[in-house]
Design brief:
3 helices, 252 residues, 16 strands, mainly beta, 7-stranded antiparallel β-sheet
Length: 252
């Protein structure tokens, strides 16, 4: 089904950390429900106002009963600053759900996230748990972790690393697990982290899927602005063919 554009009302807007915000909106009944790894294009300003482009943000949580749709994002520029300024009762324009999302495969699953790349992992954990699979969760942060407690009842194991050693393991998140212990490793985070995770999985022969972050203009594969190069030589749009790719398929 093609991505839909619609107006949504803000239910909850809260700050989770210094530059991390949680925005929850109501998904109208006529709109398709999302799955883990998909994203929406968000816009809280007029078409003739800067910034020019909407902002692609992954699904953090979707509650089917209440149709509450949540986005966890980091403020990085004028677009996300405007999203962070929204309050309960405000409205914004959404287009989605877009992208392919994560496949729910394997009995022993490791979820690896870094920084704001942990955002889509909550919905993924919930969907895996609902399917009878409790994943092992490994997250890395620069200094202080955020939004971690919600994983405790859903995951089999939760481990955290920090660059500064302030919390958890002092080092890289890829040092927390052995890919050989898993049927599949699902990753989202900084490019260097995903590259290392993919390399380690390749060495152990473990399938690895990564969610790529790209600057997007349209979010539907029309403009080719988020094209990434594959090892077969074919360019693929992160918004249309991804954002989740087999790690052996793409160049980082």
């Amino acid at each position: 089904m093609p991505a839909q554009s619609f107006e949504a009302g803000v239910l909850v807007a809260s700050q989770q950390a210094a530059d991390i915000f949680l925005l929850t909106v109501y998904l109208p009944p006529q709109c398709e429900k999302p799955k883990a790894g998909q994203f929406y294009m968000l816009r809280a300003w007029a078409a003739d106002e800067p910034p020019l482009l909407s902002r692609p943000i992954s699904v953090h949580h979707y509650e089917e009963g209440t149709r509450a749709l949540s986005f966890l994002f980091q403020v990085k520029g004028p677009g996300t600053r405007k999203l962070a300024a929204l309050r309960q009762g405000n409205t914004l324009q959404l287009t989605g759900p877009a992208g392919n999302g994560f496949a729910l495969e394997g009995e022993k699953v490791a979820l690896v996230g870094g920084g704001i790349g942990t955002a889509p992992m909550y919905q993924l954990t919930r969907e895996l748990a609902a399917a009878g699979v409790k994943p092992d969760v490994f997250f890395g942060f620069r200094d202080t972790p955020y939004c971690m407690e919600q994983y405790r009842t859903l995951a089999r194991l939760v481990k955290v690393s920090t660059d500064t050693g302030a919390v958890g393991f002092h080092g890289f998140v890829t040092q927390l697990y052995d890919p050989a212990d898993y049927d599949v490793v699902l990753v989202c985070g900084p490019t260097v982290m995903m590259r290392n995770a993919a390399r380690l999985c390749a060495e152990k022969g473990t399938p690895c899927f990564v969610s790529l972050e790209k600057k997007m203009a349209c979010g539907i594969g029309a403009c080719l602005g988020c094209t990434c190069q594959t090892k077969e030589g074919e360019g693929k749009s992160a918004c249309k063919h991804g954002p989740v790719f087999d790690a052996t398929e793409v160049f980082f």
